[in-house]
Design brief:
single chain, 156 residues, alpha+beta, 6 helices
Length: 156
């Protein structure tokens, strides 16, 4: 019985640590500008869908309150690009720039140094906050998809 309890404790600890290893891998992929690794860790269609859902008041979105600068960015894109604005503006490079937005050099480095919150938002979801609350932080949602933790929403 003691061995079973120990095994269960080890499995729970491994599950709790698992998404943090994904955050570390994501940070290293950003530091090294490893595009293929980023593409694998970002569900870009889900990121786009969550932004579209946020714009539609009749649909539920995992995105929380957004900043005025985020709304201005969206409106500018829609005015310039029309109905396909989100599909054209939101790509892996955009996600990377959002994650790096609180770095001294926003075109380089990872984001872990600027990470102010990282905790489970559900059994298969994790919420990251990059930047202090009073500094227009970027939020990213990681979700367990199959056997991989992937970014499914990004907003500020």
């Amino acid at each position: 019985m003691k061995a079973l309890a120990s095994l269960l404790l080890i499995l729970v600890a491994a599950f709790l640590i698992w998404p943090y290893t994904a955050v570390y891998r994501l940070d290293k992929a950003l530091e090294k500008h490893h595009r293929q690794a980023l593409d694998e860790m970002v569900d870009i269609q889900s990121v786009r869908d969550q932004i579209k859902r946020k714009l539609n008041k009749n649909l539920e979105s995992s995105i929380g309150d957004v900043s005025n600068s985020f709304i201005d960015w969206l409106q500018g894109g829609i005015q310039q690009l029309g109905a396909n604005a989100i599909d054209e503006m939101v790509n892996t490079n955009w996600v990377a720039s959002q994650l790096r937005s609180h770095n001294r050099n926003p075109n380089d480095g990872g984001f872990v140094d600027q990470l102010t919150y990282a905790f489970f938002d559900g059994p298969d979801r994790m919420l990251l906050r990059i930047g202090e609350l009073d500094e227009n932080p970027v939020h990213a949602h990681l979700k367990l998809q199959g056997t991989q933790w992937r970014i499914t929403a990004v907003y500020n």
